[in-house]
Amino acid sequence: PYEEPLEVLYTLPLPAGGAVTGYTIRLGKRVIRGEVRKRAEAQEEYRKALLDGRFASLLEQERADTFTQKLGCLPPGETAGVEIEVVQLLAFLPEDGSGPGRWEYRFPTVAGVRYEGAPGRVPDAEKLDVNRADGAGTPVKLEASLLIMDGPGGDTRPQAPGREVILEESDGGVRVSLSEGMKLDRDLVIRWSALQQDVGVRMVEGKGLPCDDGRYALITLTPPASVQKGLARDLTILIDASGSMSGRPISRAKLVVEELLGSLDPGDRFEILAFASDVKRLVSGPVDASPDNIRGALAALRQLEAGGATEMARAVVEALKPLRPDSQRQVVLITDGYIGFESEVIGEILRRLVPGARLHAVGVGSAPNRSLTRGAARAGRGIEILVGDDGDARAASRRLLQATVRPVLTDLEVGGTALVTFAPGRPQDVLQGQPLVLLAELAATGGMLEIKGRQAGAPGIWRHRVEIPERPEQARGDGRRATTLPLGALFGREAIEDLELEVAAAPSERERARLEEGIESLPPQPRLALAARLDSDGLPDRELAERLRMRLNTFLQNIVRARRGMERCLEGRGVRLKELLS
Are the beta carbons of 232 and 265 closer than 8 angstroms? Predict the structure, then answer.
């Protein structure tokens, strides 16, 4: 309907744990592929393209799950299609009893409103403050189709909570589609049964993206079916009682707390802190988990109402004060996560977490802020659990019980001649009913990979060794197999998140600036900006298009091998790295 070129701006959510592996714009019959640059460089190139009257696009990562996209000089009457390719890991949800558990795929559709505190507390607040639709919401609907290659639909039983789905059998699997478009007001969640339960250690080996000849592995450690009784617990519950938690979120949070209190044994101790504009102790403790103390806690919980600001950092500092050394210190943070100063909270967790302590994050609501909940759990070496409805609240409580009562393997270490590096560098414990996933870069020549840790109820050190063959195609048997998926991209994402934790925990602005400068000097950049442009003749030059593809594929690699791999790739085409980056 417009007769002049437009610039359009989108704020869009993407999976918090996903790795962006491609960015493509389709403008009429033309196809333009994105390239990854440092943010300032990408912004400048986008600005110049607009001044020259050329179509350009810019995709920038603001948080782990929030991106902004600009399409500039969009020609009148043209239709632009945008494709963003993301690789992400599925979540595993254990079942009660002897069931094999369920897989969960989750895709966000909401960029929620964040509490930002005093002016200036969130430096990039204007990028998070987006215009909101009126009460009727946006007319746009989400259409989704998911191909599950785990067996027939009758065996996997796919479901989308609160949605009707259409199942179509496919070769070796089933295609799941929504029966009607979904409003963009909550996460899309699809779950299906795991046909068999993994036992022990399994490893899948894969490659990086094109121009990266590295070897990567996804390692899954699955706990045994039963474990012995764990240590006494010091349980600290942090419950968000701010205004954004009003209504169903605070009710679901209370359900989780009630279940946790019901799980306490006589030798345990607990305390409950609620936070909004300030921190309030519902139970001043820690106190013994006696029947009288638990009844008092439940009475105080029932009186709790949501309202006010979200001063989460102060509550986290209070919750992580050291307690008795012979206990298992477990902190459970229950929140919708909608603050703009996520790095401040995550930094406090990373700095103040004492040895033996763990912090778990429970995200409540239809679309929790996973930049906060995922980052907090990672810094706290705990687990992240998402609660969407009352059924989820009860299931979340059972998973928290498994996590806080009986850790199976703690203080994990990965080493051996086959290992270059691994991520996360601060792995969580292997918990009852909760597999642990690690990503590793392997030596080109193979060798021995060793995983070790302390096993609950067993003397000495638990060890598991895997012989990595010299050639990747030999990765078969003994819990090993190969995949064509670009595991290098997932490894890069995990390695970047590790580095960003260090930035968040920097003790001073000077140290933070030093770490930021060091990160910016390493590809890929942790704060990605993807730019795509169309030359003035209306069609991208073939040589330029090939260069764009090479740069996109290469810069998304892990920080350890990216420069080495790209140099080999480009020199083979007569292009030197220094020339390309200038």
Answer: yes
Residues 413 and 288 in one domain: no
Q: 464 and 345: one domain?
A: no
The reply to whether 42 and 7 lie within a common domain is yes
- Please state the pTM of the whole predicted model: 0.70
Residue 288 to residue 293: CA distance in whole angstroms? 7
Q: What's the pLDDT band for 271 if we cut at 50, 70, 90?
A: very high
Residue 581: φ, ψ to 5°: -85, -10
Whether 207 has a pLDDT exceeding 90, the answer reads no
Which residue has tokens 């033309």?
30
Bridge-based pairing state of the strands 381-387 and 357-364: parallel
Nearest one of 146, 229, 228, 191 to 395, comparing CA atoms: 191
Domain count, the chain: 4
- Distance (Å, whole) CA 443 – CA 420: 6
384, containing H or E segment: strand 381-387
123 close to 428: Cβ distance less than 8 angstroms: no
1: containing domain: 1-89+522-582
- Could you tell me if 244 and 212 lie in one domain? no
Do 246 and 342 lie in a common domain?
yes
Distance CA 267, CA 145 (A): 49
Task: State which H helix or E strand residue 342 sits in.
Answer: helix 342-352
Non-local CB neighbours of 303 within 8 Å, separated by 6+ positions = none
Segment 142-148 mean pLDDT = 88
DSSP state of 281: E
Taking the C-alpha atoms of residue 144 and residue 420, their distance in angstroms, rounded to an integer, is: 38
Say whether both 447 and 557 belong to one domain: no
Domain co-membership, 261 together with 377: yes
